[in-house]
Design goal:
Strand content of chain A: 15-25%
Structural class of chain B: mainly alpha
Distance between the termini of chain B: 35 Å
Distance between the termini of chain A: 4 Å
CATH class of the largest domain in chain A: Alpha Beta
Number of strands of chain B: 0
Shape of chain A: globular
CATH class of chain B: Mainly Alpha
Radius of gyration of chain B: 15 Å
Oligomer: heterodimer
Order of helices and strands of chain B: HHH
Number of strands of chain A: 19
Strand content of chain B: under 5%
CATH architecture of chain B: Orthogonal Bundle
CATH architecture of the largest domain in chain A: 3-Layer(aba) Sandwich
Number of helices of chain B: 3
Number of helices of chain A: 17
Number of domains of chain B: 1
Shape of chain B: globular
């Protein structure tokens, strides 16, 4: 009835207080729609099971061949290599949980939201992060686990929770050695933080050329051409490559915890100014709508899991399991300029050092550098938005890059569920 | 409100908000807004916000596919259907947050939406 092409992403779902790491090609008994990162296509007792997590963190695409065979893959590239035309590739919609035999029966559950005071929501966030990290620790055993430290609040929050549950936790930090520049603000803060938290720090520093060698992999594995996501993907690819080199002979794939997603959950982004030009512009809409768009848009990029997976490192984004709590924050709280540090104080308190709270907000792609970090480097080498779009198209055998606007539309991959009938 | 009235408001918004030249010969209500570069990925969010503000409906994900949401005519058709749906359910005057969001996916595995 269907065939999987290539390897699917590892699962780190979260449902009913349980980490679900069922391989993506095996049936997973799920009590409710999973949070975290989860996707699977498998034959189950009630028919074909197709699941994709609420945010669409793990990717799942499909295409039907001319002979009727239904193909599933985690990367469009795999479907193209299997003979599918890019224009015929669809994503399985996020928040899908179906079992069908015959097609048409569906089981779907969505957790209800309750209005709560912010302090109560913060307590729930903390409690669930603790439970998730504790469950991860039980699941992972002696597997090497790193936390990616940028020196910002989000990754520091993950570090302070994770270190309570994962005694062997290590930290890793990225920096760019470009034109003899000094260590970035991110690196300096990460080093200080790692020392204060008692975490051994692995410093991964790439030259400009070394970093740009990773670009094609990031475009393919990140399934995105948009500059802000590609630049973030480059940072992740550098971290992944560095971690992988340290564990080349290990039997278990190392794990990297990241602070990604928290910015979307609080709409905590701003545009960047480089050389008098504006990059990473945001839609001009009211904040609650902006947040909804940013969260919704998490589906249409694989900037974290994808690049890490390319080097055999399993990326885990703990904030993905607390999305419901963040989405329950009242609009009045969202409108506060200091909502991020305010919420972090409630969730993590003084476990996060004061100098992290006091640090100006920076993006990992820029790293607190005056030269613009990865963003500045790409611009300096002429790799702008158009170049990224053209390269993504070329890598997927698309002759007209304009067609890409049909692949990601409204912040989501073009999505539908396939009919499950057909040849068996 | 008729389909044409909705299309007129959408056209006015797209022309002014995305700075479409008055004498652009390629632009019309049948122009491919996204593929031809009139509206980018950020602009989609702004367009959806405009639709919500002007017509009081949220466009469900299922409608945000290229074959249904590409031209001003397409979008007007989608919005018209959503507005009509709201009226049929007697919720036209309810606050936007309380309104029903049409979702084909909620009804289960819908093989009619499949492209395969």
């Amino acid at each position: 009835m269907f065939r999987l092409v290539g390897e699917l992403d590892p699962n780190f779902g979260w449902t009913n207080g349980r980490v679900v790491t069922t391989p993506p090609d095996q049936y997973a008994p799920l009590a409710s729609e999973p949070r975290g990162a989860f996707a699977c296509v498998a034959r189950g007792p009630a028919g074909v099971q197709i699941v994709r997590d609420a945010l669409g963190i793990n990717k799942l695409f499909w295409a039907r061949r001319t002979d009727g065979e239904l193909l599933f893959a985690a990367r469009p590239r795999h479907l193209v290599e299997a003979g599918s035309c890019f224009e015929e590739i669809w994503a399985v919609p996020p928040a899908t949980a179906v079992q069908a035999d015959p097609p048409g029966r569906t089981q779907r559950a969505v957790a209800p939201r309750q209005p709560l005071p912010v302090a109560a929501i913060a307590a729930r966030i903390r409690s669930e992060l603790d439970r998730y990290c504790a469950a991860l620790a039980r699941e992972l055993g002696d597997t090497p686990v790193y936390v990616c430290l940028s020196g910002g609040l989000d990754s520091t929050g993950i570090a302070v929770v994770a270190r309570r549950h994962l005694p062997g936790l290590r930290a890793v930090s990225f920096d760019l050695d470009w034109a003899g520049s000094a260590s970035s603000g991110d690196r300096l803060t990460a080093a200080r933080l790692a020392a204060d938290l008692g975490l051994p720090l692995t410093r991964i520093t790439l030259s400009a050329d070394e970093l740009l060698e990773l670009l094609d992999t990031v475009l393919l594995e990140g399934i995105d051409w948009r500059d802000f996501n590609v630049h973030a993907g480059l940072v992740n690819a550098a971290l992944a490559r560095g971690i992988a080199q340290l564990h080349a002979s290990d039997s278990a794939a190392p794990v990297a915890l990241t602070g990604d997603i928290a910015n979307e959950l609080l709409a905590d982004y701003h545009a960047e100014q480089i050389g008098g030009r504006t990059f990473y512009a945001l839609p001009r809409v009211p904040l609650p709508r902006l947040r909804a768009a940013l969260v919704r848009g998490l589906e249409a990029s694989h900037r974290e899991v994808g690049p890490f997976h390319a080097w055999g490192v399993r990326a885990v984004q703990p904030y993905a399991v607390v999305v419901d709590h963040y989405m329950a924050l009242p609009e009045a709280f969202l409108s506060l300029a200091d909502r991020k540090p305010r919420l972090c104080r409630m969730v993590f308190g003084d476990e996060i050092p004061a100098y992290v709270y006091d640090r100006p907000k920076t993006r990992a792609q820029v790293g607190g550098r005056e030269d613009g970090g990865v963003l500045g480097l790409c611009l300096d080498r002429g790799i702008d938005g158009q170049a990224l779009r053209a390269r993504f198209a070329a890598l997927h055998g698309i002759t007209d890059p304009a067609l890409l606007s049909r692949f990601i539309c409204g912040g989501r991959y073009r999505a539908a569920l396939p009919a499950l009938g057909g040849p068996t | 409100m008729t389909n044409d009235q909705i299309a007129a408001r959408l056209e006015g918004f797209v022309r002014s908000h995305f700075r479409v030249a008055r004498d652009d010969p390629a632009f019309s209500r049948r122009a491919h807004l996204f593929q031809d570069g009139y509206v980018d990925s950020l602009g989609v969010v702004e367009l959806l916000a405009f639709i919500h503000e002007q017509f009081g409906v949220e466009v469900p994900d299922e409608e945000l596919v290229p074959d249904r949401f590409e031209t001003i005519e397409d979008i007007a058709r989608v919005v018209h259907g959503l507005v009509d749906g709201e009226r049929e359910h007697g919720l036209a005057d309810a606050p936007p947050g309380s309104r029903r969001r049409g979702s084909a996916r909620d009804s289960g595995l819908d093989s009619s939406r499949a492209a395969g």
